[in-house]
Each structure stands twice: as C-alpha cells, then as structure tokens.
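pasting for ref
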Amino acid sequence: MDLFASSAKKRHVGQPLAERMRPRSLDELVGQHHLVGPGRILSNLAPGRALPSLILWGPPGSGKTTLARLLGEALKAELTALSAVDAGVKDVREAVAKAGERRDQFGARTLLFIDEIHRFSKTQQDALLPHVEAGTVTLIGATTENPSFGVVAALMSRTRVVRLEPLSDPELSALAQRAVHDHERGLGALDVTLDAEVAGQLVAAAAGDARRLYSVLEVAADLARRAAGNAPGAAITAEHIAEAAQGRNLLYDKAGDEHYGVVSVFIKSMRGSDPDAAVYWMTRMIEAGEDPRFVLRRMVIFAAEDVGNADPQALGVAVAALQAVELVGLPEGVLPMTQAVTYLALAPKSNAALTAYAAARKLVTERGTLPVPARYRPGATALDRSMGHGKGYKYPHDFAGHYVPEDYLPDDIAGEKIYQPAASGFEVELGERLAAIEARKRAR
C-alpha cells in the first residue's frame, strides 16, 4: 500500500484539505525547527546525502508522514510506504526485495516508511533488521507512542529516534491563514475570512494537531459559505468552529506514552501540594475516557506512599472516594474524586511507609530467614515449652503504660532502625512517641 500515491501536482477531486495542504518541500514545512532548522539533523538534505534510519516519534498531526515524504523528495530516493496496521512480514519482504533490485540495477536508494511501527510484532520488526543493517533500505518509522515500549531493542540500536513536537498555537494559526488564502490548494475559491479571535478558537480545538485543524477549518468554511449564500467574503464565526469541532478530541492514549505522561504529572502534582494542577490532570484523564477506578487506585497508593502517617485520614479519604465512585458512578462520581484529590494534594507529606518497607526488604533480602527468637514463639504445647518457646516473654499489658522495653527483631539484627517518622503532620507526634519508647529502651 502506498500512502503517498497522489502527488503534489495531480490532486484528486474531493481530496481533504489536510491532504491538499501538505507541504511540497521542507521549506514549506511549519514547525519542527529543532529537526529541520539550520545545522540540524534533517537540514540541507540533497540527493546522495547519507541519512540514518529514523524513528519519528510524535503526537497525531505533528507531521510525521509529511516529513517522511519530504525526506524522500529531498534525497531523490524511492519512498515505499507500509502501514503496520495491515502489513505483514510478506509485505516487508516484498518491499525489501524491490529495494534491493533498485539498488543493484540503478544504484537507487529506498526509504521504507512504516506508519505506526509500534504495532508491528517482534517477528515483523526482526524481519527488518538485516536489511536496515545492510543498508538495503533506510527505515523511516513513525509512531505516536514511546518507541522504547513498542520497538525492539535491536531495531532501536540501528535507528535514531527523533521527537516531533505538537505544533504551537502561532504555527497552527499560520497554517489556518495559509489555507484560507490559498487559491490553488486551499479555501481561497470559497472567499471566506477568518479573524484572529475565531482563529484562536480554531487553534484551541486543534490542540496541536494540524490534521484536525484542517478538518475543522474545512467544515467551518463550508458552513460559512452556505450561510452567506452568494454574498462575498463569508466570515467564519465562532459558532461555525464550534459546530465543526463538535467537542475537542483530547490526546490521551490509555496504553501509550501520553497516558503515562499524564498519570506521572498527576501524581507529581499531588506530591508537590498543587491542588489546582492535580485537579486539572485528573480532569484531563476523566474527560479523555480513562476508567475512574484507575485514577482512584493511583490516589489510594499515593495516600499510603506520599502522605502516610503524616495524615492517617488520607488513606481513608482515598478509599472512601473509590467506594463512592463505585456506588454512584459518573458523572456524579467526579465530586468525591475532586474532594479526595484536593485533600491529598494539601495533606502533609511523608514517604516513611515507602522507605520503611524498602529498609525492611533490604534486611530480609540480605540476611535471609533469621530465626524467630524462642521467647516470642507460642508455647501452646508441652513440646513447645520444653524447647523454651514463650519462656521469658513479657506481656506489655501487665506493665505500667501497657509497655515494657523489648526488642522483637531477630537477635542478629536487634536494634536496627527501619521506620523513621518524617517531621511532617501527625508523624511529628509519632516521632515523639517513638523517641520516648527508644529512651525507655536505652534506660533499660
């Protein structure tokens, strides 16, 4: 399958605006200056220049497919395109075989573009390895997800990953104005206008995605033209943009890089005691269709890991929010979620539970299964008692204050300090209690 069958010179009737407005050269490309700017990896390309195999990693509409096509044109190389959604090992082998023929017969280079390369199986990716390594093809892979998760290590080591950034608001605005005024490929024949304020609404609806920008603009321009009839200069209005956009598509892949990025900043916002950011990122996840139970599970973990005994109520608040959402569902469930996330963000912080478990695990791992001291074993039977089990055990409730100085760790590690209360919230009081207990132990 050739994703680039149509050329810039021959446009098919009914072709979408996004396809018609694809840049015809790297000079027309908007954005990605860190890749195509002066002195950058993809600048000053010319026929015969060496180009490493690349993985183009970026969000939808950032120009991955366009950039691949422009690289082929700049290098005067044959561009063969496959989609990982419907191509198999057989398609890869056929493409490589034809590339080998072109190289051997005509000395021609082949760029093999694979869209959504992260969807290729390990077997399919392994089939590419020898041909990329031998230079039979120069691989240009495109992915919206972190290639570290979807591309095998062997292929990653033979390619260079380049990150494409979402287009900025000024860059998207420039694309919109270019399309409105372009009579050859754009909307110039419709005689529509787009003022700065409405352009801002269009850019907001696009959310960094040039393809979506063009799709919304094309529909909005058609609405404006039909509303104006035969009158000249039909103005695209905010209402036209809203109707064409029909809500904003939030970039959030529940199994991909954007998913992990949003979850990470959500947790970091709570840890950093920023309730505004925490609610914002939580809302981003919910509005993008994330399962609220996933978000709530992160909050329950956070309550124990990052708040802990600095505020013992935090875990109860998080668990109560989880139970409330399971009871009432959405949309009402966003209220207990918001209540809980703001509470967690503003709670005093302590990671003592995390560090205490890590310290205990280190002792268990390094020292193995140390024996339980005989005095703490149950002396329930005559045999137990004959072995000294339970002998010398002091029952704390028989002593003043319901406490007697003892060390319950295995004898070989008696005195080890595992739990260290933080100087935050309620753990200050717990620290004082622990200090008093240790003082009584020392006095013993």
